[in-house]
Task: structure prediction
Amino acid sequence: MSEPLNRSRLLFALAVSVLLHLLLAGGLRSFDHERLPDERSTIHAALIAPPAPPPPRAEPTPPRVVEATPVPVQTPKRPPRPRRPKPEPEPVPESEPEAPPQPAPNDDPVTDDGESQEAIGDRELLERAIAEGALPDRDDTAILTPQRAVVSEAKLEFEVFRGELAIGETRYHWVHDGTDYQMDQVTETTGLAGLLKPLRVEQRSTGEVTAKGLKPLRYVSRATQGKATDEEVVFDWNGNRVMLRAGTKQSEHALSAGAQDMLSLWLEIIWRAQYGGDFDFTLATGKRYTPRWFVADPELGSLDTAVGRQLVKRLQARARAGDNQIEVWLAPNLRWLPVLIRFTDRKGDVYDQRVRLIEYENLSLRAGTAAAGTTAPFGDPVDPPPRYEPAEEPANPYLR
Result:
């Protein structure tokens, strides 16, 4: 609790308060609110504009140059030209026919006659085919028989391509004496395909050669490497029946005239192409018995092959939808032997067999060592396909 205020302190504070009030009251009364302020003590301020800058110094004006007006030059007038006598009207010449459009330039070398080397080569191939009787007249086809049309013995080798990738090889060899024939084929994978998917399939067809075409009796196909299914076809021409076997599956069908197997069809095609026109027959494998329609191109063509440029005739083997398609290019100058065979399977994959060796009679053509059209001795057989005989107890009941 604070100390109590004593009497003396209170009196002192009261006196101080009264003195302050008196001073304030006296000062306020001495202040005159109506009197104007003393101008002597007032400070007046005003904004004064700066003096204008001096005008820029004028540069001396150059003296004006007066250009002289050119005096026009009088051009002497030419003397009037003497008038020539008006010529008499001449007869209007007949309009010349427009020149035909020029063909596009060709990169092939052109001779003095304006014909490319390629065209000359094709013409020479055609002339040689006519001179050698490779293109018989239509009248000659009436006496053309398979015995005359098909060379008695031939060996062919092909490289097999899927697209542009080499995957294997195929070798054909056939012999006929005008009455009977025997044909063998070996197909096997090579290179990288042979390492990744080894496959070797041997086929054989035997039968008769008649005046109306090939008459196969038996066809067999077996795999010595890989997982291909063994197949067999037996033709019973007396009973008009054909039996197919693929592995353990068997089927029978009515035998149609002119039916062929997978090997005899090539000999049939060779002679029918020379006879001319379209043709058809039923094709038998161990799995299927289906018709084929063969349509030839109307004109001959040319084809670059490993054994030289060849005159060719293309045939298409048309099949039903979903079946394999076949095309073949035959060379008339080489006894109508095939130089290119193309298979298109059901999946649309294309497999080409491109010739690399042809041997028949006195001619031997090998890729890289012989030019097309050159003759050479037949020589030793070139790696012929191995021959094999049917088993003692064939699976086909027709052979038991």
